[in-house]
Amino acid sequence: MSSTKHAARPRLTNEGFFGRFRYFWGRAFLNIRQNPFISLVTVVTISLSLLILSLFLLVLVNLEGAAQEWSRQVQVTVYLDKEPTADELSVLRTKILALPGAETIRYISKDEAFKRFRARLKGQESLLEGVVPDVLPASLEITLKRASRNSDDVELFVGKLKKVPGVGEVQYGEEWVRRLTTFMQFARLVVTLLGGFLLIAVLFIVSNTIKLTIYSRRDELELLSLVGATRFFIKAPFLIEGIMQGLAGACTALLLLGACYYGLLYNAGDFLSFGPTSAGLTFLPPSYLVGILFLGIFLGFLGSLTSLKRFITF
Of 46, 55, 57, 104, nearest to 76 (Cα)? Predict the structure, then answer.
């Protein structure tokens, strides 16, 4: 469907780079004004496709954030044979922090361990009557760096830790770490596969929508080829038009995503039993937003380019 209102066609008044650049952009804007319905359908298609992809990324970002919070619980505990002096503790800290993967160390004295144990028996403290703090060992709680919280790196770290003089029994919850690592590997595989399929589907939908746009102007393309226009001269306005539609679609998708996110953020308390903010839900980081804008531009450009190949073969 084309607009019945005739707009002034841009003229190529300057053969230089800037003259051609202005002409191509003028032609692209004119094409959109002459075919508002088809252009709107293209922008809406790109918007919905990128909105689905953005929602998928939003879920992925929050899933990764939740997994990182869980991984903070990966902690190695070293039980010491005897309570160390200040100098011995300093030497032991230095040796452990020198191991690859170690991030922080917290010393738990016998008295502090006894206080923790008593706190866990809240309401049943009488069970500890006659028990002295010396029955519990002093310990070191070691937090590992983010990249070293998988099962292989934890086992490697523990193996080196056991060789440090003064280190007694070591515990780190082997089974829990192994299950967390397996879950994260499975989640990343599923996310990669679904994201790949979704991206291919988005490219296919956008390409075919833009193809309909170009198909409606096939007479114009044939006419330009008959008067001797080069392929680049014919393609450039359509490629610019695709870029503008892709950018408009990406901006619309991000606005809709923001509206959905903040709408959920401020109204979730009415129908959910938890607050999204307190649950740690976050919006997409700026790098992802910029990436979606460039993805929209790329999809519009690539969709136009692949569609033009069918009609411009000379």
Answer: 104
